[in-house]
Design goal:
Helices cover 43% and strands 15% of the residues. The chain is of the alpha/beta class. Helix 1 packs antiparallel against helix 2 and helix 2 crosses helix 3. The two termini are 34 Å apart.
């Protein structure tokens, strides 16, 4: 199991919502539940037709996921801005990881599929949601490395744009942890991958709000963190920078590829936080 990241500083204190805060929680949670549940029903119904006709390729249902995530961000209170320097590349996206919110953010930006640790598939509700939207699960066991490389190659061959959180865990969104080079193995060995696209996610809060509030790390409980976000009166901002692609052939091995991606993502975050 992935080790959670812990900060030397305590997480931002959770303010008491008050009447206005609880009103926002109820309204936003209701809208979120409505749009996610409706989207899932439509997605699963369409998938019954899409699967036998197109197999692994999903020409229809990712549009549903993208629309649901865009609406969800609006209900949550996050305005999304994309800075696309990727030159239209459909190579795998390698991103920093600050929060569960990143899932909504990157799905809203592109029609993508996430590469996730296998234990997520067993999480209540979240695992089922991940499976429904086509997440690729890996267990990072050397004994199954070859099979997992084949699985990722198959998904890439079907035209899926995969997303990898290469830090292996989420943070407070104010830093980039070292990228785990082992996660790049499948991309290096796949004939379907010519380049990867580094991505930087940056959360910005109202001046009265600690920006670390959007990060999800350490021993934070998902439910408590969700309520904190929904209770906020001021809208936040999330910026996504899709950097210029890094050609696989420009790096001699997986460690060099991971370092090149890490350096680009960290520079993007540091530049944004100046």
């Amino acid at each position: 199991m992935t080790q959670a990241w812990h900060s030397d500083m305590d997480p931002p204190p959770a303010p008491r919502p008050g009447i206005g805060g609880w009103t926002r929680i109820v309204v936003r949670a209701t809208l979120l539940l409505l749009v996610i549940s409706t989207g899932l029903v439509v997605l699963l119904a369409l998938r019954l037709v899409e699967r036998p006709l197109f197999g692994l390729r999903r020409p229809i249902t990712p549009h549903i996921t993208q629309a649901v995530c865009r609406m969800s961000l609006a209900f949550i209170g996050l305005h999304l801005t994309l800075y696309d320097r990727s030159k239209g590349s459909l190579g795998p996206i390698v991103s920093n990881h600050a929060s569960w919110l990143d899932i909504f953010v990157l799905n809203a930006v592109h029609r993508v599929y996430f590469v996730s640790k296998s234990e997520v598939a067993r999480w209540p509700f979240i695992g089922w949601l991940a499976r429904a939207t086509g997440t690729v699960f890996i267990d990072r066991d050397r004994k199954t490395a070859m099979r997992q490389r084949d699985l990722i190659a198959e998904r890439l061959g079907a035209g899926h744009q995969l997303v990898l959180f290469a830090e292996g865990t989420s943070t407070d969104g104010r830093r980039v942890l070292p990228f785990k080079s082992s996660l790049f193995d499948a991309f290096l060995s796949s004939e379907e991958t010519a380049e990867i696209v580094p991505a930087t996610i940056v959360y910005r809060a109202h001046p009265d709000v600690d920006e670390r509030l959007y990060g999800w790390w350490g021993d934070m409980e998902f439910g408590v963190h969700l309520l904190q976000i929904l209770a906020l009166r001021q809208r936040g901002q999330v910026d996504v920078v899709l950097h210029a692609p890094i050609a696989i052939t420009d790096t001699p091995n997986r460690k060099a590829l991971a370092l090149a991606a890490e350096t680009t993502v960290r520079s993007g975050l540091e530049e944004a936080l100046i």
